[in-house]
């Protein structure tokens, strides 16, 4: 899923002091929360080794909100941009936010059914008012009360900050929020009968923040969030080395939909190379490996003793975004012709088979196959195979001089190490037509996330994990007014149709509108070109349970359901 901001670097940090929980990972003294250097990470990892990587021969009595399972060590290459929910809209940040923040509504473990989290119940009290009643006595981990005013502050703040790298575009249908008493929140919507709003509350725009800690009009630094314990989810962070090592322990007063935490705590270890991630899960240095393993890594791990590879429902998509202002072409008509020629020149099957060994499959719409309302307009309009004649005709009819010089940017560390192979294959495919010359460049995620919203890239790679499993979530955030892509696309007819599908209660009628939107986008606009869709894949050591429950259609990776012998 999503996008993008970084916190400040910390050049100096104290040496961490570590202790070992019986049966759990080491806890690093709170003085190291600001640790951001490689030296700190190295000392911390030595401590992990000295403490047996969080493993234990004994059990726990299940106090402090845990069920007695030892601590879990999770490895990932997915980078975090910020802990502040108003400033991030990417999978790496949401991965951590899911562990530490509560929501009004969230998805029940093991599936994609919505259930109340901080709320007792939520429902429409009129066609434009969605009302939630909070549980009594909720608090943040710092002891501050979590009330209806906290919820109002959270959503007002998202709209006030409207960070270009944040998720506020998900609130396009929100008119206002009221808190008439301590446990009642009323959301007034612009359009009636919004069929997606309950899911929006469970999305990256929904983490509830502490109004006594977070500023109303700007982002809060990660270290302040950790130091102030301004969270209320199933875990708190006890040590924070950004994109190096993060330590979590269960928050005993969490009463939400995730239920009791099934382990004593968790450690998140970041990797810059998926090969090292694979080696550590193979050796038993970590318990779980998640985003992102290469297809070759997955094949190797499937043959590794002591490791189980688990696949969950698909939903991730990969696509190319065109900046409508800076892409090549002298007129809007020429720019559209170039995008159509691009779409006609891509061999998705080759990307699927040669780069990803079938772990990703061709995608011919903005909405992935399997969701209600999904269609395949790119296959119908541009073909399943590359069509050089069609691409040539698009350019000739618009008077575009060939070859078109296209600057194409991709990210080598956020969407997995196979991105290099993927985009070199795309460059080769485009240039083989004789219609394009491609200047292919890569940028590390921290810089990429900032530059792509600053009109720096004419065409660029993005990927998407949905905020909730509904076709609308692959359309509204990308193509409605003030969409998060920031690529200067907006269209009144597309926005009208998006509003219509969101408020249509009849499933068949809604599916027809969704298909109309997908066709319109593919035929007349093409601000993005879909490439591939993929499954969720993770690996775990023998004795680890719960991975199947968290790799589900909610697309939220939850530590709380994981346990190990």
UniProtKB/TrEMBL annotation:
First-listed, main subcellular location of the protein, grouped into a coarse class:
other
Q: Which InterPro entries match?
A: Peptide/Ni-bd (IPR030678), SBP_5 (IPR039424), SBP_5_dom (IPR000914)
Coiled-coil stretches: none
Annotated GO MF terms: peptide transmembrane transporter activity
Gene3D superfamilies attached here?
A: Dipeptide-binding Protein, Domain 1 (3.90.76.10), Dipeptide-binding Protein, Domain 3 (3.10.105.10), Periplasmic binding protein-like II (3.40.190.10)
Q: What family does the Swiss-Prot or TrEMBL record give for this protein?
A: Belongs to the bacterial solute-binding protein 5 family.
Name of this chain's protein = Peptide ABC transporter substrate-binding protein
> What organism is listed for this UniProt entry?
Sanguibacter suaedae
């Amino acid at each position: 899923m999503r996008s993008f901001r970084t916190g400040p670097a910390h050049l100096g940090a104290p040496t961490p002091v570590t202790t070992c929980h019986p049966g759990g990972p080491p806890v690093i003294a709170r003085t190291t929360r600001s640790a951001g250097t490689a030296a700190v990470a190295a000392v911390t990892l030595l401590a992990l080794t000295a403490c047996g990587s969080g493993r234990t021969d004994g059990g726990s009595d299940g106090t402090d909100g845990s069920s007695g399972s030892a601590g879990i060590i999770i490895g990932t290459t997915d980078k975090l941009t910020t802990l502040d929910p108003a400033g991030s809209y990417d999978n790496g940040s949401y991965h951590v936010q899911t562990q530490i923040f509560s929501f009004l509504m969230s998805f029940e473990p093991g599936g994609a059914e919505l259930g109340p989290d901080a709320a007792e119940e939520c429902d429409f009290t009129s066609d434009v008012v969605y009302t939630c009643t909070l549980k009594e006595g909720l608090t943040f981990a710092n002891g501050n009360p979590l009330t209806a005013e906290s919820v109002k502050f959270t959503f007002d703040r998202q709209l006030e900050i409207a960070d270009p790298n944040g998720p506020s575009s998900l609130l396009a249908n929100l008119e206002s929020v009221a808190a008439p008493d301590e446990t009642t929140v009323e959301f007034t919507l612009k359009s009636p009968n919004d069929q997606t709003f309950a899911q929006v509350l469970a999305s990256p725009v929904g983490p509830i923040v502490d109004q006594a800690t977070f500023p109303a009009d700007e982002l809060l630094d990660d270290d302040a969030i950790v130091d102030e314990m301004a969270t209320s989810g199933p875990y708190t962070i006890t040590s924070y080395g950004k994109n190096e090592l993060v330590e979590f322990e269960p928050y005993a007063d969490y009463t939400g939909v995730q239920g009791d935490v099934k382990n004593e705590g968790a450690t998140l270890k970041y990797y810059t190379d998926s090969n090292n991630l694979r080696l550590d899960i193979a050796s038993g240095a970590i318990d779980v490996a998640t985003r992102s393993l290469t297809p070759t890594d997955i094949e190797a791990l499937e043959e590794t003793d002591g490791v189980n590879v688990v696949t969950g429902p698909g939903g991730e998509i990969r696509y190319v975004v065109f900046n409508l202002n800076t892409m090549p072409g002298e007129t809007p008509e020429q720019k559209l012709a170039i995008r159509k020629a691009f779409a006609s020149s891509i061999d998705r099957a080759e990307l699927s088979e040669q780069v990803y060994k079938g772990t990703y499959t061709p995608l011919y719409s903005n909405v992935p196959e399997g969701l209600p309302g999904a269609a395949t307009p790119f296959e119908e309009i541009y073909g399943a195979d590359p069509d050089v004649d069609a691409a040539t005709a698009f350019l000739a009819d618009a008077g575009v001089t060939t070859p078109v010089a296209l600057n194409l940017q991709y990210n080598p560390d956020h969407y997995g190490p196979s991105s290099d192979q993927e985009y070199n294959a795309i460059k080769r495919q485009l240039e083989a037509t004789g219609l394009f010359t491609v200047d292919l460049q890569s940028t590390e995620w921290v810089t990429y996330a900032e530059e792509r919203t600053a009109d720096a890239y004419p065409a660029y790679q993005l990927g998407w994990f949905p905020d909730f499993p509904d076709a609308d979530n692959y359309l509204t955030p990308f193509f409605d007014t003030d969409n998060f892509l920031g690529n200067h696309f907006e269209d009144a007819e597309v926005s009208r149709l998006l509003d219509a599908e969101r408020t249509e209660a009849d499933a068949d009628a809604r599916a027809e509108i969704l298909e109309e939107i997908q066709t319109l986008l593919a035929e007349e606009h093409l601000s993005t070109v879909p490439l591939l869709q993929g499954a969720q894949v993770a690996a775990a050591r023998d004795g680890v349970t719960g991975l199947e429950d968290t790799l589900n259609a909610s697309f939220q990776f939850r530590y709380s359901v994981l346990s190990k012998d």
